[in-house]
TrEMBL record:
Family: Belongs to the acetokinase family.
PANTHER family: ACETATE KINASE, ACETATE KINASE-RELATED
InterPro entries: Ac/propionate_kinase (IPR004372), Aliphatic_acid_kin_short-chain (IPR000890), Aliphatic_acid_kinase_CS (IPR023865), ATPase_NBD (IPR043129)
Top-level EC class: transferase
Positions that bind Mg(2+): N9, E411
Active site: residue positions: D156 (proton donor/acceptor)
Origin species: Parathielavia appendiculata
Cofactor(s) of this protein: Mg(2+)
Domain of life: Eukaryota
Pathway field: Metabolic intermediate biosynthesis; acetyl-CoA biosynthesis; acetyl-CoA from acetate: step 1/2
Higher taxonomy: Eukaryota, Fungi, Dikarya, Ascomycota, Pezizomycotina
Reactions catalysed, as given in the entry: acetate + ATP = acetyl phosphate + ADP
UniProt-listed NCBIfam families: ackA (TIGR00016)
Binding site for substrate: R100
Protein's name in the database: Probable acetate kinase
Length: 426
């Protein structure tokens, strides 16, 4: 028996949907994929690919899309309306919809979505403010519009359920911590699960024998120490805010910084902080920080280009800001690589770059590896500059261990694979 699976990945500024055909217990086959991007930086545009053919390159959809729910609806209409996609003649042809949910709390595996699951996840919205609410809005829509489909929640946090207690625990009152679920959860877990399986296959190892430091670097960025195929530690924490800076996130900072940031006189007093509500503090650190605060842009490609260029305008203030952002990002990444190398006791098979920036920025890879070469990592310059075409590609110097790899991670495939191989979701 075969089913059509939709894998839905709702981010803060885009919605991606991949379509798969799957047999129970077998790896799925991708049929099509669509994405509406630019939701927070109009115009919103649609890209649609069927197989290896680009059907729609960049179609403006502002008049039809206002937020993530509308974006998903538009993508669904595009799929159903495509006569050259015979697998989906109507909405009832869709058997399983798997949703990327960033924060799953204590869930250690994907869940079939029920009323109880929804209530639990809605309680977690505040812990992943840029993502969870958007994803759950699409889940509600799917329940209403596609009643024949089974909805499955796949959690970014579930991969990190193996982090040891002494690493995931915050040194605060544990009665309060347990009551309020205050501990390290970690995120990007769906990506790290894919990276682990793909890297193990590339190296000819079983996942349980693999130990790597993986870097998921994009607008949201994190690092993960993977020991024996399982998460041992990761840079994000209770929420995705901790760890590395991102496009609009600050990453880890002194917790009291936000109060000084909001004070006109630079010192703490009841008068200077009484209007600083927690929601405003979250807004500052999640949406008004990161590269955007340093440079005015969330485009890391432009930041890397400024770092890599040498022209007569090298003293240009904008370039200085971008170089600062680049150097700061490299420094924070290397700090985690060094820390995790020690936590893994130097037994590391590879340093693996993934995510949009990790896969595309050879300049960033070169800067990171240069700084951590004291740990034994080494790049092959030509291999690093070559186009990344394979799922896993070696960019390290030949014969040098640990290896340096690039993995083109695929969260939608990982979700669809999990659903296809789990009998409970059929």
């Amino acid at each position: 028996m075969s089913k059509i699976i939709l894998a839905v990945n709702a981010g803060s500024s885009s919605v991606k949907v991949s379509v798969y055909s799957a047999e129970k217990g077998q790896s799925p086959t991708q049929l099509a994929q669509a994405q509406v991007s630019g939701l927070t930086a109009p115009p919103a545009t649609l890209r649609y690919e069927r197989g290896n053919e680009t059907v729609i390159e960049k179609q403006e959809v502002d008049d039809k899309v206002n937020g993530q729910r509308d974006a998903f609806s538009h993508i669904l209409d595009t799929l159903v309306g495509d006569h050259d996609l015979p697998n989906i003649k109507n909405k009832d042809d869709i058997g399983i919809i798997c949703h990327r949910i960033v924060h799953g709390g204590d869930y250690a595996k994907p869940q079939l979505i029920s009323d109880g699951t929804m209530h639990h996840l809605e309680d977690l919205n505040d812990l992943a403010p840029l993502h969870n609410a958007n994803s759950l809005g699409i889940v509600h829509l799917c329940i209403q519009e596609l009643p024949a489909a089974r909805n499955v929640a796949c959690f970014d946090s579930q991969f990190h359920s193996t982090i040891p207690e002494h690493i995931r625990t915050y040194p605060i009152n544990q009665d309060i911590a347990r009551k309020n679920r205050l501990r390290k959860y970690g995120f990007h877990g769906i990506s790290y699960s894919f990276i682990t399986r793909a890297t193990a296959g590339f190296l000819g190892k079983k996942p349980d024998d693999l130990t790597i430091i993986a870097l998921h670097l994009g607008s949201g960025a994190s690092v993960c120490a993977i020991r024996g195929g399982k998460s041992w530690d990761t840079s994000m924490g209770l929420t995705p805010l901790a760890g590395l800076p991102g496009a609009t996130r600050s990453g880890s900072v002194d917790p009291s910084l936000v109060f000084h940031y909001a004070s006109d006189v630079g010192r703490l007093s009841p008068a200077s902080t009484k209007e600083l509500h927690i929601s405003r503090a979250k807004e500052i650190l999640n949406k008004e920080a990161g590269w955007k605060a340093l440079t005015g842009t969330t485009n890391f490609g432009a930041i890397a280009a400024a770092k890599g260029s040498t022209t007569s305008n090298d003293n240009d203030e904008d370039k200085k800001k971008m170089r600062l952002a680049f150097d700061l990002f490299v420094d924070r990444i290397c700090g985690f690589v060094g820390s995790y190398f020690v936590k893994l006791r130097g037994q590391v098979d590879a340093l693996v770059f993934a995510g949009g920036i990790g896969e595309k920025s050879d300049l960033l890879r070169a800067a990171v590896v240069e700084q951590v070469k004291c740990l034994g990592f080494a790049l092959d310059d030509e291999a690093n500059k070559a186009k990344i075409e394979a799922v896993v590609q070696d960019v390290g110097k030949e014969g040098v261990l640990p290896k340096v790899l690039v993995c083109q991670t695929d969260e939608q495939f990982e979700m669809a694979r999990t659903c296809a191989e789990s009998e409970e979701f059929w």
